[in-house]
Amino acid sequence: MLLLQLPPTKLVWLESPTNPRRQISDLRKIAELAHAHGALVLVDNRIMSPVLSQPLELGADIVMHSATKFIAGHIDLMAGVLAIKGESLAKDLYFL
After folding, report:
1. Which tens digit of pLDDT belongs to each residue from 11-45?
2. For every residue of the chain, which 3-state class applies, written as one string?
3. pLDDT per position as a tens digit, 59-88
4. Prediction pTM value
5. Less crowded by CB within 10 Å, the N or C end of the chain?
6. β-bridge mates for residue 83, sequence order
7. Where is the signal peptide (predicted)?
């Protein structure tokens, strides 16, 4: 396995669906593998909306959402959301 040959990984960062090919990643399987090796999982969910895709429920630890496109629905603001699983992790990341 490639993951076993790499130096210790602290974070697996992915997007699903991918851009520009729109391929769907198996988030649950990737999260299981990453967590088994002690890595956090961050999913860039800007292409989807939180209504259509909830990566935290599939094992992700951190999710980026575009609040500009799907939550606000207007071009009069630019915003993003970081959803973090668990208060402990949120506190650890607060000052980064």
Report:
1. 999 998 888 888 999 999 999 999 998 999 999 99
2. CHHHHCCCCCEEEEECCCCCCCCCCCHHHHHHHHHHCCCEEEEECCCCCCCCCCHHHHCCCEEEEEHHHHHHCCCCCCCEEEEECCHHHHHHHCCC
3. 999 999 888 766 666 677 788 889 999 999
4. 0.83
5. C
6. 63
7. none
